[in-house]
């Protein structure tokens, strides 16, 4: 059964509660927005390759919260070294999910390395992730995101399809400020005035 | 006697409650890295490339924590595109950069990136502060931590000493 990215991401984010969510630029940023824009979403519009590291920074800063990074195969490949960095840190509260259509979706659907046999879950496993699998069991994956002792990594293979864009807010400062306010409350302001 | 700049910088980081220390090692940073690793209030994160330090800092800041990124000048070239995030999202980050490719550099392969380092940082709107002497480093670091702006403190090769390839 072929999975479709919008439905898959919507399932992963259903009942998300206090989950902190980072999405890599391009299709996965549109996917999390289609599932429902939220203050605790941080969708990227640039910095390709950095989604996993943003997730690590967040997971280290907020050890009591669960952190989910949803990104594409092209974005993950660009930051593949970060799998080693995360493997060395072993953050138990971090899960990376790669929505893998084996394509660079924003640039003309050119094939990525995963279309040619590169196994990202294998890379993550070799880097020491506690859980690392290519899976289509979204309900199991959702419980791992919320409860599994990480770091966790999953590849979800999806159809290569061009979908209508569902754009999140574009203003980076506004995205950052709303996230910090939602997460840190008043101390977000206190922190930024600590001079 | 030279001031103990790694100790002073560590104290400044500690006073400013810097929590996350991303680094790609440089011989010039080795003592500071050890001090940070030995500090239970800091999380030291070894990176595969300096670029990861930008994402790490952005994530930590989203989560309410301050970061510092330690690297040598050759690493500045690796952060350029990601550094756009600092400006677009207005994320403060202090980078402490030990210089290569300055006067007395033996390895000519280090010279192009060393010479381009300040221009590259400024092109990405990262403020550049230069420490020519050891006693200048900690005050520049403390000052940068008071500002909520992306700032790089460049430590001259003269402070660190020229890398020797002789055994």
Provide a concise account of the structure shown:
The complex is a heterodimer of chains A (195) and B (167). Chain A is of the alpha/beta class and 195 residues long.
What's the SSE blueprint?
The complex is a heterodimer of chains A (195) and B (167).
Chain A: H1 5-13, E1 20-23, H2 27-34, E2 41-43, H3 51-61, E3 67-72, H4 73-78, H5 81-89, E4 94-100, E5 103-104, E6 110-111, H6 120-126, E7 131-134, H7 138-147, E8 152-157, H8 172-184, H9 186-193
Chain B: H1 5-15, E1 18-23, H2 30-37, E2 43-46, H3 51-62, E3 66-72, H4 73-76, H5 80-88, E4 94-98, H6 111-123, E5 127-131, H7 134-146, E6 151-155, H8 157-160
Parallel strand pairs in B: 1-2, 1-3, 3-4, 4-6, 5-6
Helix pairs in contact in B: 1-2, 1-7, 3-5
Descriptive account of the structure:
The complex is a heterodimer of chains A (195) and B (167). Chain A has 195 residues and is an alpha/beta fold. Chain A has one domain (5-194): Rossmann fold, CATH 3.40.50. Chain A has 9 helices and 8 strands. Chain A has helices at 5-13, 27-34, 51-61, 73-78, 81-89, 120-126, 138-147, 172-184, 186-193; strands at 20-23, 41-43, 67-72, 94-100, 103-104, 110-111, 131-134, 152-157. A 6-stranded parallel beta sheet of chain A has the order 2-1-3-4-8-7, with helices on both faces. In chain A, strand 5 and strand 6 form a beta hairpin. In chain A, helix 1 (5-13) packs across helix 2 (27-34), helix 1 (5-13) runs parallel beside helix 7 and helix 8 crosses helix 9 (186-193). Chain A starts with a helix and ends with a helix. Chain B has 167 residues and is of the alpha/beta class. Chain B has a single domain, classed as Rossmann fold (3-Layer(aba) Sandwich). In chain B, 44% of the residues lie in helices and 19% in strands. Chain B has helices at 5-15, 30-37, 51-62, 73-76, 80-88, 111-123, 134-146, 157-160, and strands at 18-23, 43-46, 66-72, 94-98, 127-131, 151-155. In chain B, strands 2-1-3-4-6-5 form a 6-stranded parallel beta sheet, sandwiched between helices. In chain B, helix 1 crosses helix 2, helix 1 runs parallel beside helix 7 and helix 3 packs parallel to helix 5 (80-88). Chain B starts with a helix and ends in a 7-residue tail after the last helix. The mean pLDDT of chain B is 94. Chains A and B meet through helix 3, helix 5, helix 8 and helix 9 of A and strand 2, helix 3 and helix 5 of B.
């Amino acid at each position: 059964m072929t999975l479709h990215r919008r439905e898959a991401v919507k399932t992963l984010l259903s009942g998300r509660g206090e989950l902190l969510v980072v999405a890599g630029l391009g299709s996965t940023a549109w996917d999390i927005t289609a599932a429902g824009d939220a203050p605790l979403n941080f969708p990227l519009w640039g910095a390709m390759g950095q989604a996993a590291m943003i997730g690590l920074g967040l997971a280290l800063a907020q050890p009591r919260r669960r952190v989910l990074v949803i990104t594409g195969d092209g974005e993950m490949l660009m930051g593949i070294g970060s799998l080693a960095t995360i493997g060395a840190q072993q953050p138990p509260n971090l899960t990376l999910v790669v929505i893998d259509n084996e394509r660079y979706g924003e640039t003309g659907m050119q094939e990525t390395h995963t279309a040619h046999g590169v196994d990202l879950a294998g890379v993550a496993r070799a880097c020491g992730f506690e859980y690392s699998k290519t899976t289509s069991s979204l309900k199991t994956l959702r419980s791992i995101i919320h409860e599994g002792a990480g770091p966790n990594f999953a590849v979800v293979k999806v159809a290569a399809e061009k979908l209508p864009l569902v754009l999140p807010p574009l203003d980076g400062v506004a995205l950052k400020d709303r996230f910090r306010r939602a997460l840190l409350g008043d101390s977000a302001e206190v922190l930024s005035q600590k001079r | 006697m030279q001031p103990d700049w790694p100790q002073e910088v560590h104290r400044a980081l500690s006073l400013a409650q810097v929590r996350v220390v991303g680094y790609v090692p440089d011989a010039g940073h080795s003592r500071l890295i050890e001090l940070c690793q030995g500090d239970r209030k800091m999380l030291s994160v070894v990176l595969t490339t300096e670029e990861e330090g930008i994402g790490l800092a952005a994530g930590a800041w989203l989560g309410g924590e301050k970061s510092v990124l330690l690297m040598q000048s050759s690493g500045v070239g690796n952060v350029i595109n990601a550094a756009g995030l600092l400006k677009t999202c207005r994320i403060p980050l202090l980078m402490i950069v030990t210089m290569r490719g300055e006067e007395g550099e033996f390895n000519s392969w280090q010279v192009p990136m060393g010479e381009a380092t300040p221009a590259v940082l400024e092109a990405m709107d990262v403020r550049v502060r230069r420490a020519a002497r050891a006693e200048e480093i900690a005050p520049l670091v403390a000052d940068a931590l008071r500002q909520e702006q992306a700032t790089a403190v460049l430590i001259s090769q003269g402070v660190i000493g020229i890398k020797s390839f002789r055994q």
